[in-house]
Task: structure prediction
Amino acid sequence: MQAPASGGRERFDELYLLAPVGVFLLAEDATILQANLAGAGLLGIERASAGRACFRSYVAQRFLVDFDAFVARALASREPVRCGVQLQRDRGDRGVPVTLLGCAAAGALHLTVEPAAGRLAALEQSEERFRRIVQTAREGIWEFDAAARTSFANPRMAEMLGYPVEAMAGRPLMSFLDAEGRSLLERNIVRQQEGMPGRHELKFMRSDGSALWVHLTANALFDADGGFLGALALVSDITEHRESAELAWQQANFDALTGLPNRNMFQERLHQEMKKARRERGFLALLFIDLDQFKQINDRHGHQQGDALLVQAAARLGACMRATDTLARIGGDEFVAILPGLGHVQDAERVAQDIVAVLQRPFELAGGEQGNISGSVGIALYPSDAADAEELLRHADQAMYAAKNSGRNRYTYFTDDMQSAAQQRARLALDLRRAAANDEFELHYQPIVNLKTGVIERAEALLRWRHPERGLLNPADFIAGAESSGVLLEIGDRAFRQAADQVLAWQRAIGRPFQVTVNVTSAQLRDEAHGWLGYVESLHLPPRSLVADVSEDILNEPAGHVFERLGRLHALGMQVALDDFGTGHSALAQLQQFDIDYLKIDRSFVGGLAGDSGNLAMCEAIILLAHKLGLEVVAEGVETEAQLALLKAAGCDLAQGYVFARPVPADELLALARRGTLALPSASSAAKLPGPG
Result:
């Protein structure tokens, strides 16, 4: 017996798997590395798990010294070394006498196990055992003739394919394969006829039409004259493994919601297309697409409706693409499109125009509702706008931001000026994260005055950023950046707690009820990680100490967490004010469905007040409506005595604005509240005010 050639361990299955005697590959400590079918049957072990067993443990106790000496000699020899031992499946068995033949093979021990009976008896026993193993094997054994027709299949092979054993005889191998498999088989028939063993992963078709993925090891069969007789194959079912691998690949490379390539697959394809463009001296366009107003859809209708819209948007965007283009979803509402092999820049522009157009059309949502969004598209070209994939994506992103800042619902090409704007945004995001960590945000308070008594009864908490270089900044300078950089929720949560602490301190200082109004977004109400409910309870605040100032758009939220948490805050004594009333899209009937205590007239109506103006009529209508519904009215942005007089005459309950005071720090607000009442114009003075012009 010659030792296997180099690579023998890898070719073990091909050469020895179906031998009628036991064949093993052992490590130096006699651990079983591989076993053939006959060998696994001899020891009574599963061939697939043979690696967990040690061959020495099956040698009868009285033969262990002989066996150890045999292993030492065999590992040092390239020629077969012989030894007689007795094997036992269990220590209580009588055992079976066998002859071991072993030699070194690529750092391992190649071992053949033959029964020690007479040659004829041994042959008969081996053949009988081999027939039994073939019939009961858990792997398929399949033999083909020279025309690739089935000449033999064991029961396991027939079972895998879903046919009776007798139905397998004579069936062409091609009949079990799809077109791809037939092509692969035809390419390898010549290799088989030349005697080259083949290993393949193939997809067969079961009798019910389902796919059977197998690992197939085939060895050619020849007659005494070297004529090709066919092949003998060992077949293992790997369908479950293959499907698991395909699922893992799918999950790693495709977006689960839309089915589009994800960021990972997008980056791979972008690198490939850029290499091709360099090789062919062509160019490609990268489109960065962001859905405008998608956050409002999510906030108003919930994430389930938002997901439904994303699926529809993906389908519309896909319809704008060519077969050679790649559309991917790389973020929540962010898509990118790779357009390779373009003839002209205008080709990319036409795609961008189509995208803007299809996203403008209303989207159908559940319950017969419609969602309206638009799209902002940034276009960057390779190689003119970037040298590598990361830079190209960054520049397309910057162009998209430029489109969004220019009014949305449009497309914009990348320019060098956008790089500077993007760097400023990045610096702002970095500064905001640092400011949140260093607690650089503070609250200023604007007094809210009772127009009947002149008493400062409450104040609105307004966020300010005390920037170490730029000084005190208003929200307009940083709120958009805080939202896009992901720190707005953290800042808002701190502001809520600070305002709650402050109103409690003021109440103790002035010895009377006092309220603080805090701006609260629907996103904050959806996220209960801040623990507001528990915090408000822990302070034991008197009822009506806090007012949640919410946007009018919150009335369009679907019933769910937002209203449930707002209701729980209301139950703790917190009141609710509807901000900027008259500027949103709510229906008046919705006002009666929710726990609302105040309507706030937007400053856009107050700023144009005059004795006979339409704005005055609007304010009077809002005040009348609110009082009919049992609500109080707060006017914002009151700057002049004339505006104040008209509002007081119209029956407005409360007002805030520069006519009383600008937003001030907490200690200054306390001083204002302690002064008592403020002088207010009489109702009759409003009648004496001149009209416009």
Notes: Residues 1-11, 686-693 have pLDDT under 50 and may be disordered. Residues 88 and 95 are 4 Å apart (CA to CA). The first strand starts at residue 22 and ends at 26.
